[in-house]
Amino acid sequence: MTRQWTPGETDDDLQAIARTERLVVALDFDGTASPLVPDPMAARALPEVATQVARLAAMPNTVVAYVSGRSLHDLRIITEHDDDSVIVLAGSHGAQYWFPGEGEADATGEATEEGAREALWDAARPIIERYEGAEFEPKTFGMGVHTRRADRDVEKQVFAEIDALVAERFPHWRRRAGHRVLEFSSRTEGKDTAMAALRQKFDATGILFAGDDVTDEDGIRVLGAGDLGVRVGPGESHAALRVENPQQMAQLLEALADERAAAQE
């Protein structure tokens, strides 16, 4: 059962993950490190989140990663990420990676059928453009439709048309529905893939993963003993802890950093 985390109170689960030998702190971005905003490319981490991310990343045996459905290109923009960054990035729900000191990792898995992505873009754009407030997002392995500026009736209609289009022409592509967004990808990776990749890459003895959306549950669901899942905001979850919003997520990260610093003294 997911329980509410209370700032200022000692939490046994948070203390335990803070004391793990090799820690990976994995964070979704939109709705977790950043509030949800009407323009997806205007999203930025809250300053208080960024401060704690930098603090944790500077600690021994501690890795911080942003794990997002955004393409790696867009994720680098919204996280204000440069080539000297010590923050790991996992984009496209775990199909793309950037590692400190190494850069972008070579893509693995099956390649998208040549021209398929562009064909979907060409067919989807005219549909999306008919709906006020709906926005098209090109992705490395597919596309997304954002409706944060649209009303709910518009969202329902545009999603239905795009669903019908993809069902007819690309029925094997993976569908994901999140907060005011519908995505399709030729790749099958989810954030469960990212958790496995980060664990292996850094030989993690514990992973804290926090997210706010249905797609984050793929990653939370595969966490095991010695890990900790955190749900940001409402909704059913397999996470052990829940925080109310990105502002409270910053407080949890501060508590984690305090506990880890004390444990490493």
From TrEMBL:
Keywords in alphabetical order: Hydrolase, Magnesium, Metal-binding
Pfam families noted in UniProt: Trehalose_PPase (PF02358)
GO biological process: trehalose biosynthetic process
Enzyme class label: hydrolase
Keyword Transcription: no
UniProt EC number: 3.1.3.12
Keyword Metal-binding belongs to the record: yes
Reaction catalysed by this enzyme: alpha,alpha-trehalose 6-phosphate + H2O = alpha,alpha-trehalose + phosphate
Cofactors demanded by this protein: Mg(2+)
GO MF annotation, one: metal ion binding
PANTHER family cross-referenced by the UniProt entry: TREHALOSE 6-PHOSPHATE PHOSPHATASE (PTHR43768)
Function of the protein: Removes the phosphate from trehalose 6-phosphate to produce free trehalose.
Protein family: Belongs to the trehalose phosphatase family.
Protein name (record): Trehalose 6-phosphate phosphatase
Source organism per UniProt: Microbacterium oxydans
Gene behind the chain: otsB
